[in-house]
Design a protein that fits this description.
The structure holds two protein chains of two kinds.
Chain A (H helix, E strand, L loop, with lengths): L1 H20 L2 E9 L2 E2 L4 E4 L5 E3 L5 E6 L3 E9 L2 E10 L4 E2 L2 E2 L16 E4 L11 H5 L8 H5 L24 E5 L2 E2 L22 E7 L13 E7 L7 E7 L2 E9 L5 E11 L1 H6 L5 E18 L5 E18 L7 E21 L2 E22 L2 E2 L3 E19 L5 E17 L2 E19 L4 E12 L4 E13 L4 E12 L15 E14 L2 E22 L8 E22 L6 E15 L15 E11 L4 E10 L3 E10 L2 E11 L3 E10 L10 E10 L9 E4 L6 E4 L6 E11 L3 H8 L1
Parallel strand pairs in A: 1-8, 1-9, 11-14
Antiparallel strand pairs in A: 1-2, 1-5, 3-4, 3-6, 6-7, 10-13, 11-12, 13-14, 15-16, 15-41, 16-17, 17-18, 18-19, 19-20, 20-21, 21-22, 21-23, 23-24, 24-25, 25-26, 26-27, 27-28, 28-29, 29-30, 30-31, 31-32, 32-33, 33-34, 34-37, 35-36, 37-38, 38-41, 39-40
Chain B lengths: L1 H32 L6 H17 L5 H19 L6 H19 L4 H17 L1 H22 L4 H13 L8 H17 L12 H8 L5
Helix pairs in contact in B: 1-2, 2-3, 3-4, 3-5, 4-5, 5-6, 7-8, 8-9
Chain lengths: ~750, ~220
């Protein structure tokens, strides 16, 4: 009995000895492309045993498990690997070669020609609302802030984005996919219209200075795709006050956070500042505007999302300028503009499909009155009244193929109905452009991706169709270095403004080639872009009438014989890292362009294209003072100007350059301050921002161009309405007081 | 026969007890490691360890909770080293494990809500100016929920104290005020009894560390 017990004891001892020595060591190395990878989770499946690889990819652990087992290797950036092993009494070595997991975060992004500003793409994020508001000299306008990016020309006398040697009308602006007609307020010749849309309405944007997606069309140069905000984070009331405007608004978010609505109302009048500052422009009616907008957002139970935004605005101004024509002392022009825009969009996911639809309607009325003034007596007014109704509808269906690939396709319908009254002329212009498009994003690996698209359009006015292929590629050269290439064909109808007589016209056409090299690292980004753009079928115009006492003749398109090119190099550097609390960027653009279009007698450097543009933007936030100090500087080489007249040569009307020259270089240094007194105060219900901005601090007298009299003997400079402008304002917002809710909930 | 049955039952019990003990043993071992981890790699290794335990013990919320906590600590180390650009990725991982933990533990777990708060705070640090209104607000919301669920939880007091401590005075924070709050948190730690030896019990050392710091 005793011996048996001893035997048993011995057996136990032996068994436990066996158990203790039965620890088997498993070692190995995990590699990706022959390089060791750290942080890989190595697990003996179904046990606690495992290890994490070190920086060299090596791991080692011990286990008491036996027999057929599975070893797993996991890491969020790589595909999981499983390896079957048999554990005996010997140590084992298991190596694994990882396969890269293709995912959105690491996939190379095609960025040739485009700058995306959303919170996700932080490295190059630009022109988020805060960026716009803190760019000195941008006046809180998206379009102005864009002129501090490479590729956008500084053209002060006219609204629109002048991209890479393109005119202001060669770029289009979209909101949630729908075209915005008349994005800028109506204005008089020589004074740029302003953005009608509030910057804080948009949460992000994609700005393309060329080679943009097949989803968009009718822009020869570039496109700005604005993305409106979703549901607000909370209900709020906002007020803005300054000597030039008053505004108020609210956003109400429902309790269940499934819908929201809001509205704003604003009024602006420049007359007070006119008394303080020294204006170049003699306003007979100071610019005055009234605007209101309303919005709602609804999340449906099935996951759909409706967004509506509607606005109405009116603006007025009158300008008196010394007349260049004999018989009158002054030339007067008054504008009275009315505009309304409504945009409804809807998106929803259906399994693998994502549907995005949007419809917009806009109405624009611009009432221009021209007159002369002699010895304080105003002559009879000549009216140029334009009204337009625009309807845009777009539907895009997208299907994801794998994590980074997708196909999308859809159609777009665009109806334009414009009426123009000018003396005896009554014009009615109608055009219906229907487009279909398809595009595919192909992610071959995290290193290589492509976008191939095609767009076809038909214009009822031109009675013609076009097909435009687009292509873009991106390749990652190294961890932080990427290169991308874009090519595309772009078509645009002739501007209706120049359709004043019978002519057989066609689409205008451009071809883009863009090559980009980009380096992005933590807080810094460097972009180098080279482009070549070829124009064909641009319209040529002839003068058909002169407006009394004015120097802007009425022109009509006669054919599509125009052509041209633009080529250039651009550099962009942004650095948020080197200096604490300082964010600065530098952009430089070199542009070489020539075109023979409109009334140009020969191929000329366009009068809106400057060869060298340099801008520097700096923003420093001083937390201790709750103060933001922003600085910007722009230099652009003097643009050419022309005085083009026509003469009769053997019965043919021939254009010729009567006067020409080069403007002096443009320079402006702008400064702005934002003071946020309530910043960081716990439980603060009020958020206030005080703004002081001074544009063109040094008072440089810039010239935008020259106007010539009808006979060419006299000229006058086109200058900004004011050399140095000072803006002061306060923006106050109140988050809805939650004290009441807190009390109710705790009772 | 009875004897055999008994011993069989005993053996079976001891076996399950052994397995249970194994889980507790390894968890205690890893939980103890939290205090000694310093680097990004340390916390990643720890997160992997908890992940491994979690995949075996798929019915238990604590491994996922600790995996998330390890990721958050990793993120906080990265934040101190100025690597804020990659915090989204870390917060994503933390959130993934927090979702698992919440599925198992229920939505009224203050400890999980507190970690959610910390994950949102990490996200906010990627772009504070822009994300203050979104992630910052969500962080505050989660903290509020946690506080409502468990007002005496010292970890909630600790994180609140930290927020005040690191907020510059002009923004309503202060080191002195922060230290006062750390003291309050330390008091709460003294009277706080975790539900089990494995339930969250971290942060006391941190409170003491801050209390020992000079106010200025």
């Amino acid at each position: 009995m005793k011996t048996q017990k001893q035997k048993l004891l011995f057996l136990f001892a032996f068994l436990s000895f066996l158990l203790s020595v039965a620890q088997v060591k498993i070692t190995g190395k995990v590699t990706y492309r022959n390089k060791g990878v750290g942080e890989i989770n190595v697990t003996l499946k179904g046990t606690y045993d495992g290890a994490t690889t070190d920086a060299g990819g090596k791991f080692s652990f011990e286990t008491t498990e036996k027999g057929n087992q599975t070893l797993t290797f996991t890491h969020p950036k790589y595909n999981d690997i499983e390896k079957s092993i048999v554990i005996d009494n010997q140590d084992i070595s298991v190596d694994a070669e990882l396969k890269e997991q293709i995912n959105e975060i690491d996939a190379v992004v095609i960025s040739a020609g485009s700058i995306e500003a959303s919170d996700k793409k932080r490295a190059t994020a630009l022109l988020t609302p805060i960026d716009v508001y803190t760019t000195a000299g941008a006046d809180g306008q998206i379009s102005s802030a864009l002129t501090y990016l490479p590729g956008v020309q500084k053209v002060g006398e006219s609204e629109g984005l002048f991209i890479r040697g393109g005119t202001g009308t060669e770029s289009k602006i979209f909101m949630d996919g729908s075209l915005i007609n008349n994005y800028f307020s109506s204005s008089v010749p020589g004074i740029a219209g302003r953005d009608r849309f509030n910057t804080s309405l948009f949460k992000g944007n994609v700005f393309s200075s060329g080679g943009y997606s097949a989803l968009y069309g009718q822009a020869l140069s570039g496109a700005l795709m604005l993305e409106s905000v979703d549901l607000p984070d909370q209900s709020s009331y906002d007020f803005g006050i300054s000597p030039i405007f008053l505004s108020g608004g609210f956003q109400k978010l429902s309790e269940d956070k499934n819908h929201s609505y809001g509205a704003t109302l604003g009024y602006s009048l420049l007359s007070l500042m006119q008394k303080v500052l020294n204006f170049n422009t003699d306003f007979i009616n100071a610019p005055e505007g009234l605007n209101g907008d309303a919005n709602f957002r609804i999340k449906t139970k099935s996951g759909g999302f409706f967004k509506y935004y509607g606005m109405y605005d009116t603006n007025k101004m009158g300008v008196r300028a010394a007349s260049l024509e004999p018989g009158s002392d002054y030339a007067l022009v008054r504008i009275n503009g009315k505009n309304t825009y409504h945009n409804l969009s809807f998106k929803q996911k259906f399994g693998k499909y994502l549907l995005n639809t949007g419809a917009s309607y806009s109405y624009n009325r611009s009432d221009l009155n021209f007159s002369g003034e002699t010895n304080d007596i105003e002559s009879a007014k000549t009216q140029l009244l334009t009204t337009g109704n625009y309807i845009n509808f777009k539907a895009v269906l997208e299907r994801k193929i794998n994590k980074i690939s997708a196909v999308r396709g859809g159609f777009e319908l665009n109806n334009t109905d414009e009426k123009l009254n000018f003396e005896d002329v009554k014009k009615h212009y109608q055009d219906f452009i229907s487009s279909v498009f398809a595009e595919t994003d192909l992610g071959f690996s995290n290193q290589l991706s492509a976008k191939i698209g095609v767009r076809a359009e038909n214009s009822s006015f031109l009675n013609k169709s076009n097909i435009a292929p687009r292509l873009a590629l991106a390749y990652r050269l190294a961890q932080n270095w990427t290169t991308s290439f874009a090519y595309g064909l772009f078509y645009q109808n002739p501007e209706s403004k120049y359709i004043n007589g019978p002519a057989s016209l066609d689409f205008q056409k451009s071809q883009h080639y863009i090559l980009q090299l980009q380096r992005t690292s933590e807080g810094r980004s460097l972009r180098l872009e080279a482009f070549y753009k070829k124009y064909d079928q641009l319209i040529k115009v002839k003068n058909i009438a002169n407006i009394d006492s004015q120097n802007q003749p009425v022109q009509t398109a006669i054919n599509n014989d125009g052509y041209g090119y633009a080529k250039g190099l651009e550099l962009f550097w942004r650095d948020k890292k080197t200096f604490e609390n300082i964010d600065y960027w530098i952009s430089y653009s070199f542009l070489d362009s020539k075109r023979d279009f409109m009334n140009y007698p020969v191929s000329l450097k366009p009068n809106f294209a400057s060869e060298h543009t340099l801008s520097v933007v700096g923003k420093r936030f001083i937390p201790e003072w709750k103060l933001g100090v922003n600085l910007s500087y722009t230099y652009s080489k003097g643009r050419p100007y022309y005085d083009i007249a026509s003469k009769d040569v053997n019965g043919n009307v021939v254009n010729f350059t009567r006067n020409e020259g080069r403007l002096k270089d443009y320079n402006a240094l702008n400064l702005s301050f934002n003071y946020l007194p309530n910043l960081g105060k716990k439980d603060s219900k009020v958020f206030t921002v005080f703004v002081l901005s001074v544009s063109n601090v040094l008072g440089t007298k810039n010239v935008y161009g020259y106007n010539f009299s009808q006979d060419g003997s006299r000229s006058s400079a086109v200058v900004p309405p004011v050399n140095t402008f000072v803006f002061v304002g306060a923006f106050i917002s109140f988050g809805v007081d939650k004290t009441q809710d807190a009390i109710n909930n705790n009772l | 026969m009875k004897k055999y049955l008994l011993s069989f039952a005993l053996a079976f019990m001891s076996l399950t007890a052994f397995a249970q003990a194994d889980y507790e043993k390894i968890m205690s071992e890893k939980i103890a490691k939290i205090e000694t981890c310093k680097t990004v790699e340390d916390f990643q290794t720890l997160a992997n360890d908890f992940q491994r335990i979690g995949s075996k013990e798929s019915g238990k919320w604590l491994p996922s909770y600790y995996a998330a906590f390890s990721y958050i600590q990793k993120g906080r180390v990265m934040m101190r080293e100025g690597k804020t650009q990659d915090l989204d990725e870390v917060a994503n991982q933390a959130d993934k494990h927090l979702a698992t933990a919440q599925n198992l533990a229920g939505a009224d777990n203050a400890e999980i809500h507190l970690l959610k708060k910390m994950a949102y705070s990490l996200r906010m640090m990627v772009n504070p100016q822009q994300r203050y209104m979104t992630d910052g607000m969500k962080a505050a919301e989660e903290l509020q929920i946690a506080e409502k669920l468990d007002p005496t939880n010292p970890r909630i007091a600790l994180i609140k104290a930290e927020d005040i401590y690191f907020t510059p005075e002009q923004y309503g924070g202060s080191k002195t005020k922060g230290i006062e709050m750390f003291k309050k948190a330390a008091d709460q730690y003294n009277s706080y009894k975790p539900k089990s030896s494995m339930d969250p019990n971290w942060g006391k050392g941190e409170a003491e560390y801050f209390i020992s710091q000079p106010a200025k």
